[in-house]
Automatic annotation (TrEMBL):
It comes from Eilatimonas milleporae. Keywords: Transferase. Signal peptide: none annotated. Gene3D superfamilies: 1.20.1050.10, Glutaredoxin. InterPro entries: Glutathione-S-Trfase_C-like, Glutathione-S-Trfase_C_sf, Glutathione_S-Trfase, Glutathione_S-Trfase_N, Thioredoxin-like_sf. Residues 86-198 form the GST C-terminal domain. Residues 2-84 form the GST N-terminal domain. The lineage of its organism: Bacteria, Pseudomonadati, Pseudomonadota, Alphaproteobacteria, Kordiimonadales. This is Glutathione S-transferase.
């Protein structure tokens, strides 16, 4: 059986989620750098793996391919402590995973992409919604260490990936102490985080 291969761009928080999940669960992986800005996700070889031409994409140990960051981490996190055993807690984790993709990622990650990779000012309306998303997180974390229950779950993995990089887009986590402390707490579980993944 081959090692799990992660095709990703190291600048992408969505790709970081997959690496974080592997590291937190002790799953071996091979990183295949795929520069989306240079068309490396649009080659014939890559499109054979993922016709949508998006990263992250993984080639599983059995040869199967899987795309979409939250689908990947749910698959990799199955039967690990990152997925709550209790049905309701698991549903709350799913709730945050859906919220991350609908109400967080488009308004925190996209402004970062616009500023860092496209070299332009982020859309003001996206920034406004990003501020609201970060405020919502700060409020939720005021009296808890993690998003669901008393231990880290895939909800924390999904949300920390771009939240920790929010400053790149111009968001100020310093005004959100609960988010700031939570980010340190979650990243503290990954002391050997690979260099250059920012």
């Amino acid at each position: 059986m081959t090692t799990l291969a992660i095709y990703g761009d190291r600048r992408s928080g969505n790709c970081h989620k997959v690496v974080m999940t592997c590291r937190l669960t002790g799953r071996p992986y091979e990183w295949v750098e795929t520069d989306i800005m240079n068309g490396e996700s649009r080659t014939a070889a890559f499109l054979a793996l993922n016709p949508a031409g998006q990263v992250p994409t993984v080639r599983l140990e059995n040869g199967g391919a899987l795309a979409q960051s939250n689908a990947i981490i749910l698959h990799l996190g199955e039967n690990t402590p990152l997925v709550p055993g209790d049905a309701f807690a698991r549903a709350k984790m799913y709730e945050w995973l859906f919220w991350e993709q609908y109400s967080h990622e488009p308004y925190v990650a996209t402004p970062r992409f616009q500023k860092l990779l496209l070299g332009r000012m982020p859309d003001p309306w996206r920034m406004d919604r990003g501020e609201a998303a970060l405020d919502h997180m700060n409020s939720h974390l005021r009296d808890r260490d993690f998003f669901v229950g008393d231990r880290p779950s895939l909800a924390d993995v999904a949300l920390v990936a771009y939240t920790r990089l929010a400053g790149d887009a111009g968001f100020d986590l310093g005004t959100r102490p609960s988010v700031q402390e939570w980010t340190k707490r979650v990243m503290g579980l990954l002391p050997d985080w690979p260099e250059g993944f920012a």
